[in-house]
Amino acid sequence: MTKTIRDYQQKVDQTVRVLGGYWRPLSGLARVIEELGELAELFMQEEMDREDLGGELADLFVITASVGNQYCMDLNEEFSLMAYPIEIEELYKQAQPVSSKVDGVMSLLTRAGQIARILNHYEGDKKKKPTEKKRRLGEEIAKFNIDLIALANLNNIPLFTYVNQILDRDVVRDKNRFDITHDPTTEPSLDHFRELTKGTPYESLKKVWGSYEWDESLSLEKNLQNTLPTFQRFGKVGENEGLEALVLEIVGEEFISDEENRNKTIQRTLQFFHQFDPYIGQDPYVNDLGLHELTFRYHFYGVEFDWVPMVHRQSLFLLFIRSMS
């Protein structure tokens, strides 16, 4: 069966999960810069080791794919939007040739700069200027990897052969090396939601973030506090990266024992997040729960959400679906 770029992206995700999860996106960006420095250092050597070069190029694919995975990027989708094939063998043939190693590295640096700009807007301290061109992280990572394939081709490196080798090595070498981390794409709430919605219309939602893992020893509000940064990040990046929904899992019999308790829990949850909305008070039709009195949609961080409560086993799920209208 022909392998596509998404197949390797998914293998990166599977490997990361085995190793404990994703680093914070800005840490991933730092790793991209680190690997670009090591690549440039290799090219400066009089005699360059082919295996080292293949490994460095593969590392850059793995790290950029990891960062993109944290925003639900689909490389098949991104490559198709730019009229590139998604099959690896065709990509090898159609990647635009690069004239020299220097030009290849400079192109990667330019792409990395755009990735850094976007991540600084999303996760860092730099605010986006009103006049700044709209850029998506998924698109810039796809462009980076097209240039990466071209540079690999110039050096007769079968890039994805080395990607396979790197990932297979890391699963063995780095198992139990890293602490378990939290990321909205790997939280248990997302797995539980997938189990709950299998065979329902909500199964079609692909680009979904999950809430921070619930701790039953903490109060409702303390647990919601843990998820607040995820919800805020969703508000900042959701529209630009095409995120579809965020699912919040509330665990505990006391929250779902009867309809009255469920309704109280939902009210407390909506009120909790609403108090942290920077747009609070700007729309007179939005009440103190964050609900629009005409559409009944939830408003948070400038985003409108259709919201759906669900009960499964000992959990109450609140699904916030970003409104596309």
Strand segment count:
5
User: How much of the sequence is in beta strands?
Assistant: 5-15%
Give the tally of structural domains.
2
Q: Structural class, from secondary structure content?
A: alpha+beta
Count the DSSP helices. 12
Strand adjacency order, main sheet: 1-2-5-4-3
Give a written overview of the molecule.
The protein has 325 residues and is of the alpha+beta class. It has twelve helices and five strands. Strands 1-2-5-4-3 form a five-stranded mixed beta sheet, with helices on both faces. Helix 2 runs antiparallel to helix 3, helix 3 runs antiparallel to helix 7 and helix 6 packs antiparallel against helix 7. The longest helix is centred in the middle third of the chain and has 23 residues. The two termini are 39 Å apart. The mean pLDDT is 94.
SSE inventory with pairings:
Blueprint: H1 5-18, H2 25-43, H3 50-69, H4 75-81, H5 88-94, H6 101-123, H7 137-154, H8 159-173, H9 188-197, E1 208-210, H10 220-241, E2 245-251, H11 253-256, H12 259-274, E3 298-300, E4 303-312, E5 315-322
Parallel strand pairs: 1-2
Antiparallel strand pairs: 2-5, 3-4, 4-5
Helix pairs in contact: 1-3, 1-8, 2-3, 2-6, 3-7, 3-8, 6-7, 10-12
